[in-house]
Amino acid sequence: MSIHVHDNQDVRQLVVKGSLSTAGEQSLFREAVKGKHRSLEIDFIDARFLPVDIIDTLAALRRQYSRENLKIHTCYRILTSYLRRIHISNSLLQEKKTTSPSLHTNIGIIAMGGSAGSLEKIISVIKRIPLSDITMFIIQHIGEGGNRILDKLLQSHTPYKVLYAAPDVLIQKRTLYIAPPGYHTIVVGDYIYLTQEERVNYSRPSIDVLFESLSIQYGPELMTILFCGYGRDGTTTMKSVKENNSTVIVETPDECEAGEIPENAILGGAYDYIMSCNEISEYISSVLESNEISAEEKLNQFLASIYDTYGYDFRDYQRDTLKRRIGASMANENFDSFDAFKFSVLSKRESFERLFYDFSINTTTFFRNPLSFKMLRDDILPYLASYHHIKIWCAGCSSGEEAYSVSIILKELGLLKKSRIYATDFNTIILENAKNGIFPRDYLNLNENNYIQSGGEKTFSDYFEINKGYVKIEETLKERILFFNHSLVSDGVFNEFQLIICRNVLIYFNKNLQNRVLELFKDSLDMSGFLMLGESENILPGGENDFFNPYNSKNRIYKKSFL
């Protein structure tokens, strides 16, 4: 974490890196915003969430400064949305977006070149390139007397046919050609030629020679990639390669021990993109994806790649829901092309995080479907009162309203101190917001009627500390709730419960995943345990899930079967 303070006369600007999660960091922030300045600007550079103490500090600043003189900027839509909901933001709050490259979809030739330390990078890229009707060229600075073993090495990493370039050979698709040591490799009229002319940039073979000849021949069908190495070879003809409308990609020098080639290329300015090896691989895969592939196959591949890259498994989610969420995310990020969007998500973690947030279903209220909560109050929880300790799991708890609703009922029944609520979700950022227990002020009016219909004994607002733009849940209600990350898709049993509440989550899963989750719930309940689902969810008797019996079908409450 770091806080940089810039004062310009009576205007103070804070640049904050980190989420200010510790007491010491929060103290530093409060100290930095102390005093009265004409204007205060705060930039949160990489925070996805903010703790409750910082929210309170921002609210105090909102009261201290006029709307025009307090500017709060965030770099992530997730935090932007949260701050807007609780009225910390104003019209000046904005998300700073990163730009993503467009896709050049007519690529037929890919040429990769590099020097010292580049071979490992090139292999890491080519082994992830799907088989397609393209031709590849690999050029390395290899000593003229070196053994020709690179073809055997590369062949073990790619389905493409691997050959050393030979003179007067007609270029074939689905083939990878290696520039041989001691010769310049050039291409004219779809034929390969080898020459022993003078070295170029102290090199033979020369990256410049090959790249330029390919760009003259293939123009916009060519993609060239410069990897790490010493010297300038590959950089001096980049301008002419670009003038021929070929794509030029440079490996980011941050990945290189020998970074002269990419650094010189960047200084020259004639390039399209600077990318890491992972980004290069994802970009090529996105470009080469066949236009004939069906939309469903594209989605399947995309979900599989998300799982392989980030470990989150959405493959068994309802497809209609995923398509709507992807469409909304593309609109939010200003993408017209799914392929370009896919590349951005798979190569840039911040882009994935924004989609991940859109995939999370975060629509809930306090005491949603209040008659179900009334049955908890009047029937289920009094039955569980006989237990020495009551354990309740709120699965898929989202922003916390459901867990806090249960906590309120337990308090009114005198059961809170002997209870523990485990509130879980797979979205860490949403969980952090739930821990804050902060909600828009209008929640009091919007949820008051739900509370009354659920049998509430007090006034709903009694359970909140009321601020100008938001309300905070009473601290005693938070003490018995443990928020933590758990995925219903991939994680298993972690405790034994008397009551599991999972409402309006299963409707987003396909039948296979629903069955797996219901089996997880069965294994997580004690012999007399209850399961409460959402109003649109149902367990049909005599089906695959015969380990639950209806207890109250109208309110979607089930009891674990003894069978």
Q: Give the strand order of the largest sheet, numbering strands 1, 2, ... along the chain.
A: 7-9-6-5-12-13-14
**Total of DSSP H or I helical runs spanning 4+ residues:** 19
Q: Pick out the low-confidence regions.
A: 91-99
CATH fold topology of the largest domain: Rossmann fold
**CATH architecture field of the largest domain:** 3-Layer(aba) Sandwich
Helix fraction bin: 25-40%
How many strand segments? 24
CATH class of the largest domain: Alpha Beta
Give the overall average pLDDT.
89
Which word captures the global form? elongated
Give the end-to-end Cα distance, rounded to a whole number of Å: 54 Å
Instruction: Please compute the radius of gyration using only Cα atoms.
Output: 30 Å
Descriptive report:
The model is unreliable at 91-99 (pLDDT under 50). The strands form 5 sheets. The chain has a 7-stranded parallel sheet. It is elongated. The protein has 19 helices and 24 strands. The longest helix has 16 residues, at 295-310. The relative contact order is 0.08. Helix 4 packs parallel to helix 9 and helix 11 packs across helix 13 (349-359). The protein has 4 domains: 2-85, STAS domain (Transcription Regulator spoIIAA, 2-Layer Sandwich); 109-284, Methylesterase CheB, C-terminal domain (Rossmann fold, 3-Layer(aba) Sandwich); 291-359, no CATH class; 370-560, Vaccinia Virus protein VP39 (Rossmann fold, 3-Layer(aba) Sandwich), CATH 3.40.50.150.
